[in-house]
């Protein structure tokens, strides 16, 4: 009897998602690129760049300005690491579909990454709801390069964001997010 073995061992996938706003998020893309260039780890990187035109130097990057919702959900499910902006819709999607805790870096007004600091406010709110062991995954205005380096080097941590999103009765925002994501999955999967 012939034993079945995987032909190729799949490399870990890092999903980097920066949202779809017209503001760039080069600060994060540069930090991820720099970290991966100088690390010993071999990752496949898939990034949703929005309108950012950052040029990657890391050798194994597949980048897309936009990713269709069903493809995006599949990537969230498959990724072994996720580095993301702090958009509420993105975090809700990751909370619902990912088994790994993401590294969340809010877009900041002072860097021209958004018109307000609403992502920072939202990120701080989520962070307060998490146990101390998981607070390090929601950054504010810290040294993101060091945080990315540590995150990529460590073993994946179980995602507990869904506890935050479902801890209290659903607000109007959560109901709206649930309805939108349900439309994505039902309309794209007959």
Description:
With 190 residues, the protein is of the alpha/beta class. The protein has one domain (13-188): Rossmann fold (3-Layer(aba) Sandwich). Helices cover 43% and strands 11% of the residues. The protein is built from 8 helices and 5 strands, in the order βαββαβαβααααα. It has helices at residues 26-38, 69-78, 88-97, 118-129, 132-135, 144-153, 161-165, 172-188, and strands at 13-17, 44-48, 61-64, 81-84, 103-104. A 5-stranded parallel sheet has the order 3-2-1-4-5, with helices on both faces. Helix 1 (26-38) links the parallel strand 1 (13-17) and strand 2. Helix 1 packs across helix 6 (144-153). It is globular and about 45 Å long. Mean pLDDT is 85; it is low at 1-8.
| End-to-end gap | 38 Å
How many domains, as an integer?
1
Radius of gyration: 17 Å
Largest sheet: 5 strands, parallel
Beta-strand residue percentage: 5-15%
Give the strand order, joined by hyphens, for the main sheet.
3-2-1-4-5
| DSSP helical segment count | 8
Number of strands: 5
Overall pLDDT: 85
**CATH architecture descriptor:** 3-Layer(aba) Sandwich
In the CATH hierarchy, the third-tier topology is known as: Rossmann fold
Q: What is the highest CATH level, the class?
A: Alpha Beta
**Uncertain ranges:** 1-8
Shape: globular
SS class:
alpha/beta
- Spell the H/E element sequence: EHEEHEHEHHHHH
Helix percentage range: 40-55%
């Amino acid at each position: 009897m012939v034993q079945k073995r995987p032909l190729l061992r799949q490399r870990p996938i890092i999903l980097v998602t920066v949202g779809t706003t017209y503001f760039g998020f080069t600060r994060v893309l540069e930090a991820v690129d720099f970290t991966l260039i100088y690390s010993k780890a071999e990752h496949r990187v898939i990034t949703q760049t929005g309108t950012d035109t950052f040029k990657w130097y890391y050798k194994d990057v597949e980048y897309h300005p936009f990713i269709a919702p069903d493809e995006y959900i599949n990537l969230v499910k498959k990724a072994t690491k996720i580095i993301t902006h702090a958009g509420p819709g993105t975090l809700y999607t990751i909370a619902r579909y990912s088994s790994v805790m993401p590294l969340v870096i809010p877009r900041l007004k002072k860097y021209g990454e958004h018109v307000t600091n609403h992502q920072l406010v939202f990120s701080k709110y989520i962070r307060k709801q998490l146990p101390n062991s998981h607070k390090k995954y929601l950054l504010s205005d810290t040294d993101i390069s060091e945080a990315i380096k540590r995150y990529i080097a460590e073993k994946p941590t179980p995602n507990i964001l869904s506890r935050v999103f479902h801890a209290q009765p659903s607000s109007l925002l959560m109901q709206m997010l649930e309805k939108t994501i349900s439309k994505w999955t039902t309309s794209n999967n007959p």
